[in-house]
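Closing statement on the MTE sub-project.
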Amino acid sequence: MLIRNRPDIVPSEITSRQVYEGRRAFVRNLGRAAFAAAVPAVPAWAQPGPKLAGVKASTYSTIEKPTPYKDVTTYNNFYEFGTDKGDPVQYAKTLKARPWSVVVEGAVKKPRTFAIEDLLKLAGMEERVYRMRCVEGWSMVIPWTGYPLAELIRQVEPAGNAKFVEFITLADKAQMPGLHVPALAWPYVEGLRMDEAMHPLTLLTFGVYGELLPNQNGAPVRLAVPWKYGFKSGKSIVKIRFTEQMPQTSWNRAAPQEYGFYSNVNPAVDHPRWSQATERRIGEDGFFQKKRQTLPFNGYADQVASLYAGMDLKKLF
Ligand code: MTE
């Protein structure tokens, strides 16, 4: 089992990004006028972002070594800003994360629009270090900050016929150059079954490495669903809709034979064009680095396998 309880960790021990990376001195120097001329232009990924306060450690964190901040924030999928991994960090500067609001509607008793400031205060923030596995065969370990999506869901009181939750993300051509290319049907839409959305591992995410999310990682609010392939974790969410019917998601619509609705990480079910049995951990890509075995449900089987009891996961992939 890869998830361990960490009762020994107190909030004050949560390390900042700089501590993780051992870059304290570097950052201090950035602030000193005397060094200004000597310091080269600071790349976007190295700019320290605003800190999130009052964050607690979580017992749901893996103890695996986090992927370096640089990789987490420069090797991204965010097709609204281009289809290359390096595009989002370069082009997402135009995303305006404030003002921002999230509409919550559909089969709920209390539909509501949340300003991002209210969402940030809705529940206590936790740092959750999650393994994330992309459908393309690479993985990272990412310290996210957020709280369970269930906290938000409880506020709006789903109606009896709410079976699924649809996540609709921003689609604004003025801010997102990738929308001029029909790579996917915009807006980017994802979905979860209600029990998946309510699961304590499903994190409504506002930060990474203790800082507010950089634009390329889905500012100001995204999902992190660690037992599913990365594309289920929609970025820059503007609408959450509760439905009776299974939502049609962007990737399922684009290639239904390749991307199912569930998309649970499953080494036993290959993508039609490649195996899913192993993965490459970003940040440890040396020539002799062996690939890692991919684990069922990305190593979270103890927590989530019961959600799928009795289902044929080869058919419902
Ligand atoms: N959300 C939106 N809106 N647009 C996207 O293109 N890409 C998905 C997911 N969420 C995507 C998205 C995919 S394919 C992955 S692997 C993850 O975001 C990557 O998240 P990260 O760049 O923060 O690691």
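The pocket of MTE is lined by residues 76-80, 134, 169, 188, 217-218, 230-231, 233-236 (CB under 6 Å). With this model delivered, the sub-project is considered complete and its resources will be redirected to Aim 3.
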